[in-house]
Design a protein that fits this description.
CATH topology of the largest domain: N-terminal domain of MutM-like DNA repair proteins
Helix content: 10-25%
CATH class of the largest domain: Alpha Beta
Number of strands: 11
Number of domains: 2
Radius of gyration: 20 Å
CATH superfamily of the largest domain: MutM-like, N-terminal
Structural class: alpha+beta
Distance between the termini: 28 Å
Largest sheet: 5 strands, antiparallel
Order of helices and strands: HEEEEEEEEEHHHHHEE
Amino acid sequence: MPELPEVEVTRQSFCERIHGARVTAVRVGKPLRWPLGVVPDSLVARTVGEVARRGKYLWLPLEDDGREAGGLLMHLGMSGSLAFSPAPGDAGVHDHFDLVTSRGTLRLTDPRRFGAVVWSASRSDGMAAKLLNGLGLEPFDPAFTGAHLHAALKRRRVAVKLALLSGDIVVGAGNIYACEALFAAGIDPRTRSDRISRPRAERLAAAIRDTLARALALGGSTLRDFRDAHGMEGRFQAQARVYGRAGVPCDACGTPLRRIVQGQRATFFCPTCQRR
DNA sequence: ATGGGTACCTGTCTGC
DNA sequence: TGCAGACAGGTACCCA
């Protein structure tokens, strides 16, 4: 489910309210992707620092006497969402993690359990480091330029859409936004990444940034169950030009949009507007 | 190193 | 109505 815009919208929706809150209890439900890696009770009495995002991961620093004392790395997987509320009510079957604090409870709901909550001594240590190392540039990092994207794509021979999804060149564009950005840049998703010219890489880098920024401004995409930590739905999905629209006439040229499968994932594109 | 495929898990929708 | 099968926003890991 959640790509960069959804994760960032989620972060923004609870970051300020939880900042400075004191952990009073931790509840762990069904196992997620990895074990938590710490005795839950040992987190009690720590203070939540400023929540950060890296790619589609969230990092919740936990402080002890004002000093950073580890933190929780969270991932929403395909179906996860976080809610922050003063009185969350009883945990349902899909509520797998509660961080109960003096200001309210941060609750992870994740029906498919592809998500994760993992404790690490620091962001650059242990499990967090293992998961975060090797991630590509942030799309809004000034270092993410057309030149950088061009050089990175030159080193690979996979289809450009798969290169974008792999997350080691640029993070944050998942299946929806990779499809949308390739449409905006006029590039066929099947094009071999090393055949993308410099000008097209420039356009693609700009399209990735623009697509993610626009989605962010609209609160992300809610296809079925995404909500931010206030329970708000995203509004980007109504603006999708290709995603989920197989057979629908392209709104730029009228050609029916196509659906193909790449790397076991659906890809949507316009065979006329998007060229190899 | 790269690329391709599998695995994880559950809910929803489609077609017979 | 019931049921099998396809499909879903992600990514670590195994193997060639």
